[in-house]
C-alpha cells in the first residue's frame, strides 16, 4: 500500500484537522464524535441540512458544508457509515428551530444509523425529515436487494435543497424538493482500478489490467459485470444509455449533466467523457442546460467515472444557480 | 445451573478476543462481497467495549449488556453497529436487574436479541445475513431447553446450529446489505455477518461450558 498517510487509524482525524485549518472561514469541526458544521451554525429560522457517510468520498460530504448547501456533515470511518451519536450531535448543533432534513444515501448502514439518530433527535423535540437517495441504475430495485444505491444525485440534492433552505422555505417544501431531485436523477459508474481502504491495506477487489468493472458503487464494492476495457466513446455510451433509458429522459428534456471522477481519474479524461456525453445527448435531443465536471463523489484513489443526469425545470435551474460557498463548490458569492 | 455477572463479563472479553483474532478473516470475507471493513469495525467496537467493562464489573447483567450495546452502536458504524448494538440492547432489556440468569432467561434474552436484529435490519432467513446464524441458534437453544438439556449442552447445540447456518450462507444469493448489489455473484461466499454472529455464540458456548 502506497499512501500519503501516517497511521491508518489516524487518517480521518488528521484529515478533519486539515479541513478545519484550511477552511476555518467556512466550517467548524468537532471531534469525538466527529462532525463538520457551518462556521455560523445554527442559522436561526432556516431548515438545516445534515448528511453524512463513510470517509473516502471527499469532497462529499464535508466539502459541501457552507452557505447554500449543507449545515452539517458526519464523516464515518473510511467507507463506514457514521454512528447515531455523531448524527444526533450534528443535528442538535445545526437545528435553528425550523427543523432538520437528513439526506441519506441508500446504503444499509447509512440508512440504519440515520434512522436510529432521527429517532433520538425526535425524542429530544427536534423535527426531522429524512430523504433517502437511490439514483444508481446499476442496481436492480426489487424486494430482493437493498435497493438502488445513492450516488451522484446526492450532491446535486445537497446543492439544490441548500438553496431552497436559504430561501427560508419550510421543512416540508425542502424535503419535497429533495425527493423531486432524487426522483428525476439517475446515475451509473464504472471503475478502471480498485481502491485500497487504509486499514485494509490491500485493494478491495482485483481488477486485471485489461478489464473494467461496470456498475460500481462508491465504496469499492464490485459492480455487476466485468468486461474488457473499451474506448471512452464506448464506455460513455454504455453508462449514458443505461442512465437515459432508465428515467427515461426524453427528447426536449433539459438536464444537468454531472461527469464525476472516482478519485484517481485526471480531469483530462473526465472532459473526454463529457465530450462523448454531449454527443450522445445531442443525438437524443436531450439538452444539457447545466453541467459539472470534476471529482465530487469519490472512492479514494479509484480510477473511473460516473455519469449523473438530472431532469431540470425552471425551479431546479434557479436553485442550482443560486449562490453557494463551500470548500468544494462555490459560485455567485 | 446459571450464568453469573462474572461469566457474562468473561463472555464479552472472549468475544472481543475472537473479533481481534479473526479480524483479518472477517475483512477478507467482507472484501469478497462487501466493502472489506467488517473485521476492522467489529474489532474497533469490541476494543471500545473492553475499555468500558471496568466501569460495570459490579453491575447487573442488564447493565453490562446495555453498556456493550450502546458502545457498539457508537463505535462500530456500518450496518453492523446498529444491528449488534440493537442485539445487545435487547439482551439488556430482557435481563435488566438480574445478577444471574438461567437457561430459560438466556432463551428469552436471545429471542429478544434476534427479534431486535430482524426488526432493525428487516432481513429474513435465507437472505445471507447475520440472521442466518442467529435464527437457527435461537431455534436450537429453544429445542434443547425443551428437551431438558443442561445449560452447557444447550449452548453447545446453539453454537453448532449457528455454525451450520453460517456455512449454509455460502451458496445463497444475498438479498440484503451491500452484498445484494452483486446478485448471483454473491454465491459461493460465506456471509461475514453470519460469521461474526457465529463467533459470538461460539464464544458464549465455550465460556459458559462449565457454567454453574
Report the end-to-end length of chain B measured between terminal Cα atoms.
4 Å
Text of the CATH class of the largest domain in chain A = Alpha Beta
Structural class of chain A: alpha/beta
Give the SSE order of chain B as H and E letters: EHHHHHEHHHH
- Strand order, sheet with most strands of chain B: 1-2
- For the record, the CATH architecture of chain B stands as Alpha Horseshoe
Anisotropy-based shape of chain A: globular
Which assembly state applies to the chains in this document? heterodimer
Element pattern of chain A in H and E: HEEEEEHEHEHHEEEHEHEEHEE
Give the helix proportion of chain B (percent range): 55-70%
Percent of residues in helices of chain A comes to 25-40%
Query: How many distinct helices of chain B?
Result: 9
Characterize this entry briefly:
Chain A has 333 residues and is α/β, with parallel strands linked by helices.
Task: Present the secondary structure layout.
The complex is a heterodimer of chains A (333) and B (212).
Chain A: H1 11-22, E1 27-30, E2 35-38, E3 48-55, E4 66-67, E5 72-78, H2 84-94, E6 100-105, H3 108-123, E7 128-133, H4 153-166, H5 171-184, E8 185-191, E9 211-214, E10 225-228, H6 232-246, E11 254-261, H7 267-283, E12 287-294, E13 304-311, H8 314-321, E14 324-326, E15 330-331
Parallel strand pairs in A: 3-5, 3-6, 6-7, 11-12
Antiparallel strand pairs in A: 1-2, 2-5, 4-14, 8-9, 8-13, 9-10, 11-13, 14-15
Chain B: E1 3-4, H1 5-21, H2 23-33, H3 38-52, H4 61-75, H5 80-95, E2 100-101, H6 103-121, H7 131-146, H8 151-167, H9 192-207
Antiparallel strand pairs in B: 1-2
Helix pairs in contact in B: 1-3, 1-9, 2-3, 2-9, 3-4, 4-5, 5-6, 6-7, 7-8, 7-9, 8-9
Report on this model:
The complex is a heterodimer of chains A (333) and B (212). Chain A has 333 residues and is of the alpha/beta class. Chain A has helices spanning 11-22, 84-94, 108-123, 153-166, 171-184, 232-246, 267-283, 314-321; strands at 27-30, 35-38, 48-55, 66-67, 72-78, 100-105, 128-133, 185-191, 211-214, 225-228, 254-261, 287-294, 304-311, 324-326, 330-331. Chain A has eight helices and 15 strands. Chain B has one domain: DhaL domain (Serine Threonine Protein Phosphatase 5, Tetratricopeptide repeat). With 212 residues, chain B is an all-alpha fold. In chain B, 67% of the residues lie in helices and 2% in strands. Chain B contains nine helices and two strands. Chain B has a two-stranded antiparallel sheet. Classes of the chains: A alpha/beta (333), B mainly alpha (212). The interface between A and B is large, with 39 and 32 residues.
Amino acid at each position: 500500500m502506497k499512501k500519503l498517510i501516517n497511521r491508518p487509524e489516524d487518517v480521518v482525524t488528521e484529515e478533519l484537522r486539515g479541513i478545519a485549518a484550511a477552511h476555518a472561514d467556512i466550517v467548524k469541526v468537532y471531534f469525538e464524535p466527529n462532525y463538520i458544521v457551518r462556521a455560523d451554525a445554527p442559522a436561526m429560522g432556516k431548515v438545516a441540512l445534515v448528511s453524512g457517510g463513510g470517509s473516502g468520498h471527499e469532497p462529499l460530504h464535508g466539502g459541501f458544508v457552507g452557505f447554500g448547501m449543507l449545515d452539517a456533515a458526519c464523516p464515518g470511518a473510511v467507507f463506514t457509515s457514521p454512528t447515531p451519536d455523531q448524527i444526533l450531535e450534528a443535528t442538535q448543533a445545526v437545528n435553528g428551530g425550523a427543523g432538520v432534513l437528513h439526506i441519506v444515501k441508500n446504503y444499509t448502514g447509512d440508512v440504519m444509523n440515520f434512522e436510529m439518530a432521527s429517532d433520538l433527535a425526535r425524542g429530544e423535540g427536534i423535527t426531522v425529515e429524512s430523504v433517502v437517495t437511490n439514483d444508481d441504475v446499476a442496481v436492480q430495485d426489487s424486494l430482493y436487494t437493498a435497493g438502488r444505491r445513492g450516488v451522484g444525485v446526492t450532491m446535486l440534492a445537497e446543492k439544490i435543497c441548500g438553496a431552497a433552505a436559504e430561501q427560508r422555505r419550510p421543512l416540508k417544501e425542502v424535503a419535497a424538493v429533495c425527493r423531486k431531485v432524487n426522483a428525476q436523477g439517475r446515475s451509473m459508474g464504472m471503475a478502471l482500478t480498485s481502491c485500497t481502504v487504509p486499514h485494509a491495506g490491500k485493494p478491495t477487489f482485483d481488477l486485471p489490467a485489461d478489464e473494467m468493472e461496470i456498475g460500481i458503487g462508491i465504496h469499492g464494492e464490485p459492480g455487476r459485470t466485468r468486461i474488457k476495457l473499451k474506448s471512452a466513446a464506448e464506455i460513455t455510451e454504455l453508462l449514458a444509455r443505461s442512465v437515459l433509458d432508465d428515467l427515461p429522459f426524453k427528447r426536449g428534456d433539459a438536464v444537468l449533466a454531472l461527469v464525476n471522477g472516482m478519485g484517481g481519474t485526471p480531469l483530462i479524461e473526465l472532459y473526454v467523457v463529457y465530450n462523448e456525453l454531449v454527443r450522445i445527448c445531442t443525438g437524443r435531443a436531450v439538452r444539457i442546460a447545466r453541467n459539472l465536471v470534476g471529482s465530487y463523489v469519490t472512492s479514494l484513489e479509484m480510477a473511473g467515472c460516473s455519469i449523473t443526469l438530472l431532469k431540470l425545470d425552471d425551479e431546479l435551474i434557479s436553485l442550482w444557480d443560486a449562490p453557494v460557498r463551500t470548500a468544494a463548490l462555490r459560485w455567485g458569492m | 445451573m446459571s450464568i453469573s455477572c462474572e461469566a457474562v463479563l468473561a463472555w464479552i472479553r472472549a468475544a472481543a478476543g475472537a473479533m481481534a483474532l479473526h479480524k483479518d478473516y472477517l475483512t477478507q470475507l467482507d472484501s469478497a462481497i462487501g466493502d472489506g471493513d467488517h473485521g476492522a469495525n467489529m474489532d474497533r467496537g469490541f476494543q471500545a467495549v473492553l475499555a468500558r467493562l471496568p466501569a460495570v464489573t459490579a453491575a447487573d447483567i442488564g447493565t453490562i449488556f446495555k453498556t456493550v450495546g450502546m458502545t457498539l452502536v457508537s463505535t462500530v458504524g456500518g450496518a453492523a453497529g446498529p444491528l449488534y448494538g440493537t442485539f445487545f440492547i435487547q439482551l439488556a432489556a430482557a435481563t435488566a436487574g438480574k445478577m444471574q440468569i438461567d437457561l430459560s432467561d438466556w432463551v428469552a434474552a436471545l429471542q429478544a436479541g434476534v427479534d431486535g436484529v430482524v426488526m432493525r435490519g428487516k432481513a429474513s432467513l435465507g437472505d445471507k445475513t447475520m440472521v442466518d446464524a442467529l435464527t437457527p441458534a435461537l431455534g436450537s437453544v429453544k429445542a434443547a431447553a425443551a428437551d431438558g438439556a443442561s445449560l452447557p449442552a444447550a449452548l453447545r447445540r446453539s453454537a453448532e446450529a449457528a455454525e451450520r447456518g453460517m456455512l449454509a450462507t455460502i451458496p445463497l444469493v444475498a438479498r440484503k446489505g451491500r452484498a445484494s448489489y452483486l446478485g448471483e455473484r454473491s454465491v459461493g461466499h460465506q456471509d461475514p455477518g453470519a460469521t461474526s454472529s457465529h463467533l459470538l455464540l461460539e464464544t458464549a458456548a465455550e465460556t459458559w461450558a462449565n457454567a454453574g
